[in-house]
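I am still getting used to backbone structure tokens and would like to learn alongside you. Label the sequence line and the structure token line clearly, so we can match residues to local backbone shapes. Go ahead whenever you are ready, and we will take it from there:
>
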Amino acid sequence: MIIQILISCYIVEISMDDKTYYGVGLVITNPGHTDFYLQQKDDTYWIEEYRLHYTFFGGAIEDDETETQALKRELLEELGPKVTDMIYEGSKRIADLTFINVLNKKFNYTLYESVIPDNDLKSLSNVKVMEGKGGFLIPRDKIEIIPLFRTLKPLLQKYLLRI
């Protein structure tokens, strides 16, 4: 409920498109929640407002997929099988929310969390990310100053208060 209220402060107008879009994302962190592994979009990302911005790994849910199937597919596409196996195992669903995205479309978003050991999290910094500029380990105290996707920033802030 609170997450939806925080997200709703970013809704400026209601979408005229009746279609609802679906997506998934994954918070990747260590047991102390002191570091987060985020994806940075590159300077050619199709949504200009989000070029070079950070976001969770994940993406759209295809018509024939469940949320968990979409999450695994997106991780395989972005990080490859070895990393996907490490971070997908033990991931848990932590939030479902609906908001109007930057394209003025209704968007249902399912957020998962993967807590992995510090050494494994640090090793992700050496992984070649196959989409975007790359994956980056961001300390918790830097989350507030990096450019995040506008619709995900309040969600991440709420997540940080919860842990």
Summary: The chain has one domain: 2-162. The helical segments are 2-8, 67-79, 81-88, 118-123, 153-162.
